[in-house]
Amino acid sequence: MTEQEILFLNQDIVIGLIDLIDRKDVFTAVERAFGQHGRKKVQMPPKTYLNFSEHNGDARIMPSSTDFSDIFGTKIVTVFPENSKIGLPTVIGTILLNSKETGVLLAIMDGTTITNLRTGLAGAVAAKWLARENSSVAGMVGLGKQAETQLLALMPAGDIQTVRVYDLNEDAKFAFKKWAEEEFDIEVIPTDSVKEACDCDILVTTTPVRSPVVKSEWIQKGTYISAIGADAEGKQELDSRLMMRAKIVVDDIVQASHSGEINVPFSTGIISKENIHCELGEVVAGIKPGRENDDEIIVFDSTGLAIQDLAIAMLVYEKALECGVGTKLEL
Ligand SMILES: NC(=O)c1ccc[n+]([C@@H]2O[C@H](COP(=O)([O-])OP(=O)(O)OC[C@H]3O[C@@H](n4cnc5c(N)ncnc54)[C@H](O)[C@@H]3O)[C@@H](O)[C@H]2O)c1
């Protein structure tokens, strides 16, 4: 391929290539990206948001570069929760890769699958570093696309045997049970309330809500929580009183303050920067401690980092070149 040619990888090809890459390599690539972020070895300005409130949606532009590659990336991801009513995904992403040496565009690829994969892996990397050892019961609140990817990433990395699940939509609970029990050797228990799902070691929240659904009094000592759903201003899944009890680890302090689980308690002054323990990358890099005892409640506030997408997109691009797949385009 000449430098002027651009490799176009559609969703089916990206899915096929991801299947060819060892899951451990993908986990390691995302974990390494977090570590580099903790060591301040990445360029990653905070996401830029465009809001389309008339359609209840938004678009995020996410550029990034790490010091271990000669490629930089940009993702455009859109989040339109009403899309499910017309058979489209809530989250749709596209990733561009460019050369750092010449700026030349190298690849355009579907980023939806990569977004889902990396969001799941962020939760799994955080659980590895922040959950209690031998955590065997997971709780899941919100059972859409992100819940599926969270469980897919969590299962190979941990010892989960039972999953307690809750969704507002009754059908979603049973569909999730059927899927997860077919996929893994686990027991999935649909619950009648969020409270019952919170009776667990690892809680994963993936709802798009703007008013908290998880109350502080439902969370036992020692619980680890992946707070995934809040990724835009005004979104909040966890009661602010829980945030005051918890050790809070964010993926990126600037991004989380504006758009993560902490954005609402931050803007109302309930918590401040002093309440944030550190960024996940600092734990992965060994700069800050993760879990220090079995009683701590730890919340991981995930907003989604461009470097997570870039880490996986680079693996996909390398695999595409190795396999000689994709369509070559010229600008
Ligand atoms: N942190 C990140 O990196 C990241 C990445 C992608 C998506 N997200 C966010 O994750 C959230 C979920 O995305 P998705 O693609 O899974 O959406 P989805 O529409 O597929 O699923 C959301 C699920 O939550 C359920 N739900 C809604 N309100 C609820 C409530 N009060 N109690 C229980 N269940 C409730 C819905 O019924 C639905 O099943 C969105 O807010 C999205 O913006 C975060």
Account of the 3D structure:
The chain has 331 residues and is α/β, with parallel strands linked by helices. The chain has 2 domains: 134 residues, ornithine cyclodeaminase, domain 1 (2-Layer Sandwich), CATH 3.30.1780.10; 183 residues, NAD(P)-binding Rossmann-like Domain (Rossmann fold, 3-Layer(aba) Sandwich), CATH 3.40.50. Helices cover 35% and strands 25% of the residues. It has 11 helices and 16 strands. Strand 3 and strand 4 form a beta hairpin. Helix 2 crosses helix 3 and helix 2 packs across helix 11. The longest helix is centred in the middle third of the chain and has 19 residues. The protein is globular, with a radius of gyration of 19 Å. The two termini are 14 Å apart. The model has no long low-confidence stretch (mean pLDDT 95). Bound molecules: nicotinamide-adenine-dinucleotide (NAD). Nicotinamide-adenine-dinucleotide (NAD) binds next to helix 4. The site of nicotinamide-adenine-dinucleotide (NAD) has 29 residues, from helix 4.
Sum this structure up briefly.
Helix content is 35%, strand content 25%. It has 331 residues and is of the alpha/beta class.
How are the secondary structure elements laid out?
Layout: E1 5-9, H1 11-20, H2 23-38, E2 42-43, E3 48-52, E4 57-66, E5 71-79, E6 91-99, E7 105-110, H3 112-130, E8 137-141, H4 145-157, E9 162-166, H5 170-183, E10 187-190, H6 194-197, E11 202-205, E12 224-227, H7 240-245, E13 247-250, H8 253-259, H9 263-267, E14 276-279, H10 280-284, E15 298-301, H11 306-323, E16 327-330
Parallel strand pairs: 1-7, 8-9, 8-11, 9-10, 11-12, 12-15, 13-14, 13-15
Antiparallel strand pairs: 1-16, 2-4, 3-4, 4-5, 5-6, 6-7
Bound molecules: nicotinamide-adenine-dinucleotide.
Residues 79, 81, 84, 90-91, 119, 141-147, 166-169, 172, 206-209, 213, 228-229, 231, 302-304 line the site of nicotinamide-adenine-dinucleotide.
